[in-house]
Amino acid sequence: MIVRLERRKGQTWEADSLLAKRRIQVRTRRLKRKVRLVSGRALSLALVLGLIALIALWLAFQYKPGWYRPVVLDDAGIQRAQSQAVAVADDVGDQMVEGRPFRVVLQDRSVNEWLAALPHVWPDARDALPPELTEPVVRFEDGCIKVGAHYAADGWRTIVSMGLTLGVSADGTAVEIALNSARGGSLPIPRSVLDQVFDQLSRSAGAGQDEPRHAGDALASALREIESLDDLFEGVRIDNRFVWPNGDRPFRIESIEIEDCELRLRIEPL
Q1: Using CA atoms, how far apart are residues 138 and 229, in angstroms rounded to an integer?
Q2: Is the dihedral of CA 108, 184, 136, 89 positive or negative?
């Protein structure tokens, strides 16, 4: 009787042990399924978030500033823009001859029309920009000159823009220029891309030129002297003495104001 009880107890223990093992196996399988399910959901979520981030990045890169509106001119518009540019130049030349300080007010709309007409009037003007940059546009606002252009290279297309501050030094001896922003769409432009564009502009601006004589030559000379973009971000100084090409008349800039879509200069003939 005692042996049977022990055998029954042994059988009971063995059965309990098998039952416990099966419960552990079931729990392990359930846990593995939960882990796979959670891992799958986490991976799917990561893929969705990554896709959203890529789309957001692409949209930010494709962003076009509201002020960037290239001007398209027909033949009559080209002739009109050319006539207006000549009239402004003649007016400045006449006031240079009078020898008294005067003001020049340039509207960004007019400047953009001149930029659109310039390649048709002077084809060599296309070489002033790298071939990847087309349709330049300027905007005058809040003490800043914004410059934008369409960039296309290696399958990439975007609107690049830069903000430049421009002013006369406190002692009046220099014109100070500083770069305060550079963007592709709404994203900051990588420094490597900026360096390449800057190198191209520097080469095209000053290759083979002698001592600067006119205002454009002075700007080209200043670009040649800039060793890196750090200098441009910190600000560069150009000697505030220029020469008007019509008659080789020297002048200086007394003041610069940039607001309400206008660039306002006060000029003093020397």
Answers
A1: 21
A2: positive
pLDDT tens digits for 107-131? 999 999 998 888 887 777 777 777 7
- Three-state SS string over 96-161 comes to HHHCCCEEEEEEHHHHHHHHHHHHHHCHHHHHHCCCCEEEEEEEEECCEEEEEEEEEECCEEEEEE
Question: Residues 154-176: what's their mean pLDDT?
Answer: 87
Walk across the sheet containing 242-244 and list its strands: 102-107, 262-269, 249-259, 242-244
> At 217, is the pLDDT very low, low, confident or very high (cuts 50, 70, 90)?
low
CA gap 111, 101 in Å, rounded: 23
Give the residue-averaged pLDDT of 35-48. Answer: 62
Torsion of CA 56, 129, 200, 226, to 10 degrees: -100
- The amino acid that residue 160 corresponds to is V
Contact of 150 with 172, CB cutoff 8 Å = no
Residue 201 near residue 189, CB atoms below 8 Å: no
| Cβ–Cβ < 8 Å for 69, 137 | yes
How high does pLDDT run on average in the chain?
A: 76
Distance (Å, whole) CA 201 – CA 144: 20
Q: How far apart are CA 182 and CA 146, in angstroms?
A: 10
Residue 71 has pLDDT above 80, yes or no: yes
What whole-number distance in Å separates Cα of residue 126 and Cα of residue 89?
Answer: 21
